[in-house]
Amino acid sequence: MKHRRGLNLKETICGGGEKAVAMDAAFSVIMSFIAVFNKNAIVDHLFFNRYDVPRYAFLFLLYMALFFIATRIIAMCFLHEAKKDVVSNERKSPHFMAALAMFAAWIPYLLGFLPGVANYDTVNQVNDFFDGVSPVPFGFVKGQETVNVFLNAHHPIVPTFIFSFFVAAGALLGSETLGFLLYILCQMLLGAFLISEILCFLHENAADSRSRLIIKSVRVFFMFMPFVPMYMICMLKNTMHSLLFILYIFVLYRYYLGKDDKPAKSWIVFFIIVLLLCTTLNTGVFVTLFTGIASLFIRKKDSRILLISVLCAVIWFIVFPKLLYPALNVFPGGKQELYGTLFHQTARLIRDNEEEFTKEDKQIIDAVLDYEKIKENFSFDATDPVKDTFRLHSTDEDMRKYLGLWLRMGIKHPIVYLRATFSICGNFFAPGAGIQIFGDIPQSEGMFGKIHAITPRVFGDKAFSLYYNVTITPFIRLIFQTVIYAFWIPVYLLYVLVIRKKMLGTYESRPEMIILVPLFVSALFLIVSPMNYSRYALCLIFASPIAIALLCTENKKS
Do 395 and 482 share a domain, yes or no? Predict the structure, then answer.
């Protein structure tokens, strides 16, 4: 028995040949470097002294060993093929009951926070809709210049209309809180049926018991991981977008697997899905564009995927701002959202090396940002305090001069720019930060102020506190780490299922691997995230477990 265990351990660590071991070791070194780099950026802002070097060297070696062990275990799991079922007598999963069970598993969270939860972005969206044509700060921050419009597209207007529709329906029924609750129930039902339907499809088509075990594990994850239902009971644009995101990758998966002749069985339905993905979150258009481009380089080439992505991009970048916004009296989202990371890098350089700026440089910055305020308001943890000082009436010439200055200073001080960026986004790429949730309905004025908690606040507060105590509990905290879902799962899927197999000569073309493209595009956008908050990675938190179920299971041959 001991001899057999020794052989198994030796096979796990050294099996698969020297090339495989060397590749896994190299991969572990890269992953360890990324983790330590981001850890240092978060804690020490890429500063090192003689006391830090031994600490980070030890951390690097520890991560490298852990990554290597994890990589070898995962690789060995896929090296040995699971025994295929000769005849499958399993009955088809009762789809409706499976979805209802998932919905029921989320109900206790709703009851604890009845009628649900929200964040301040949602408050601003709904209030902006109901206050009609009136002055609002262009970035929804007090003290900013105001714009006298019907809506401010600082937040995408499609979720704004949907949220406001439900609140208005509740008002007609005599209670805005009821309208809020109706939205949450609809979101929970749609989410439960979507996720459950994907898993039922995979379970019915699974060719072996290992695949079915993976699918059942993913189902348990969505039913019982606390942050999933907490976001499902949240009126939030990121939750809406994340459900569309997993629908998008599932539609692509079925199409490239050969299950459907057309994505979503209809090019029109696929167009609607892509358009909604683009219009519910600003990053959606880039996700679909890069996925469309990737579709030209796989075995099942289909330019129509790219054509639909480009068409939706034209609608988002041209039709919305040039036609729809003027017609509805909507103020387009400001440039500060696009350039937020750049502004933050400039502010960090002013903080660290203000003597590097000439009087003319300061004037160039002051034409775009309030120079004195960014010195006072600078924060290591978010770009908002800097970009909120954006001068609304700065000209294109002002921006051109600023971008030239930003580039020149970046060439001279690249490390400062890295400090500014990775001190914010580092928690998406290194262990340390647990997945944050929202735990109440923010108090506000306006229409949203009429929405009130039904369950006594004390229950929600205790549940909220319990959640955070769990996320810091030793060992248990590991499965609550944002980095697992935002970065590690997509990277491991790419390495183990694609890169490693290609290098070893065992890769068989799998067009459905295209679903990794949306995941990596979303992960790259986390680098320019305005702050370290889990909702910015929510589409990955939802999609990464789904991707495991899609790509790590064997399907029955059609």
Answer: no
State how many domains the chain has. 3
Amino acid at 485: Y
The two tokens of residue 157 are 């207007």
- Please report whether residue 173 resides in a domain: yes
C-beta separation of 453 from 112 below 8 A: no
The values of phi and psi at residue 300, to 5°, are -95, 75
Q: Residue 86 falls within a domain, yes or no?
A: no
Tens-digit pLDDT profile for the chain (558 aa)?
Answer: 554 554 455 555 666 678 999 999 999 999 999 999 999 999 999 887 878 889 999 999 999 999 999 999 998 887 666 556 544 555 565 899 999 999 999 999 999 999 999 999 999 999 999 998 888 888 888 878 888 999 999 999 999 999 999 999 999 999 999 999 999 999 999 999 999 999 999 999 888 888 999 999 999 999 999 999 999 999 999 999 999 999 999 999 999 999 999 999 999 999 999 999 999 999 999 999 999 999 999 866 778 999 999 999 999 999 999 999 999 999 997 778 889 999 999 999 999 999 999 999 999 999 999 999 998 889 999 999 999 899 988 999 999 999 999 999 999 999 999 999 999 999 999 999 899 999 999 989 999 999 999 999 898 899 999 999 999 998 899 999 999 999 999 999 999 999 999 998 888 889 999 999 999 999 999 999 999 999 999 999 999 999 999 999 888 754
DSSP 234-281: EE-HHHHHHHHHHHHHHHHHHHHHTS-SSGGGSHHHHHHHHHHHHHHS
To the nearest 10°, report the CA torsion of 190, 194, 199, 204. 110
Strand, coil or helix: what is 289? Answer: helix
**Consecutive H or E run containing 146:** strand 146-149
Chain position carrying tokens 């002051």: 366
The Cα–Cα gap between 151 and 400 comes to: 28
Half-sphere CA count of 315, side-chain side, radius 13 A? 17
How far apart CA 179 and CA 433 sit, in angstroms, is: 34
Neighbours of 266 (CB within 10 A): 12
Residues 54 and 153 grouped into a single domain? no
How many C-beta atoms lie closer than 10 Å to residue 452's C-beta?
Answer: 13
Domain boundary among 428, 448, 480: 428
134-137 vs 146-149, strand pairing mode: antiparallel
- Of 302, 320, 224, 308, nearest in space to 273 by CA: 308
Distance of CA 378 to the CA centre of its chain: 25
**Structural domain of 58:** 2-79
Give yes or no: residues 214 and 310 share one domain: yes
